[in-house]
């Protein structure tokens, strides 16, 4: 049983660019690899996968050499070596590699380095070439991990144990350029820093506000699992009832601004939605981006006309009525 909610495969974001020939192209490729490694090291799911591997292999705490060996063996056995498209250099993120489970030497190096860095093991890239007469021509890349005063070679593309390195006449080592890592984003997403809010959560709150929810909606199940793992289901019987109703019967398309505002307020309090902007008195906090997406529409206020009072007229009390907020479509009722 997974200890966290797996993120579904997202549509790939592809960035195209030209890579110059020779050593400038190699340096640019290495720079992109370094950036992807450091980005993956701060991805909560990459770190969680690395920890799950260590627990599955029963690696003892502080057995740092055993940690390196366990992650190296897992990548070697669970990621298929697959060449890039013809005459196209492709670099995958560490999370995409966990979904794809296939890639060439640079992709496998990115994944393994990101998992090692995510649990505190420094790494560096090693490029090798076959021809000493062409010292700027490289044909392969692998990793080295630091442990107890030594760099350990790690080449998961080959069926050899940890410590084996290919014999090449040309070799060049590239330390990770940690200056590419922004200090303001130095926290691991999901641990000590804010993680980006997933679009499916915004879409779910928007659906409650007006669009409706179909029965057995996967987003409802995902939110239920997230709250259950954080032990938050018992914190709000209203939220638990709402999610159970949406899962079993769904919601028809109907304006529900109060229900959406209350749902957003709870998600903000639990850290699942960001708090943006001040919160007015008596109003549920709703993220500004959520209002932009059409979750809650502003209510037009009618101007109040002044009443003329004569000094000699007897003052009579004016009765005012306040409409009480009702639960919308029985959302707060038990299913």
Overview of this structure, please?
There is one protein chain. With 335 residues, the protein is of the alpha+beta class. The protein has 2 domains: 22-184, C8orf32 fold (Roll); 199-295, no CATH class. The chain contains 10 helices and 6 strands; from the N terminus they run αααβαβαββββααααα. The protein has helices spanning 22-41, 44-56, 64-78, 94-100, 105-118, 199-211, 218-229, 237-248, 257-269, 288-292, and strands at residues 80-81, 102-103, 123-129, 140-147, 150-154, 170-175. Helix 7 packs antiparallel against helix 8. It is elongated. The model is unreliable at 180-196, 277-299 and 313-335 (pLDDT under 50).
The structural class is alpha+beta
The whole-angstrom Rg is 28 Å
The general outline is elongated
- By CATH, the topology of the largest domain is C8orf32 fold
Query: What's the total helix number?
Result: 10
Note the run of SSEs as H and E: HHHEHEHEEEEHHHHH
* Poorly predicted runs: 180-196, 277-299, 313-335
Assign a percent range to the helix content. 25-40%
Q: How does CATH name the architecture of the largest domain?
A: Roll
Largest sheet: 4 strands, antiparallel
Number of strands: 6
CATH class category of the largest domain: Alpha Beta
**Structural domain tally:** 2
Task: Note the beta-strand portion.
Answer: 5-15%
Distance between the terminal alpha carbons, to the nearest Å? 29 Å
What's the pLDDT, averaged over the residues?
A: 77
Placed side by side, the strands forming the largest sheet appear as: 5-4-3-6
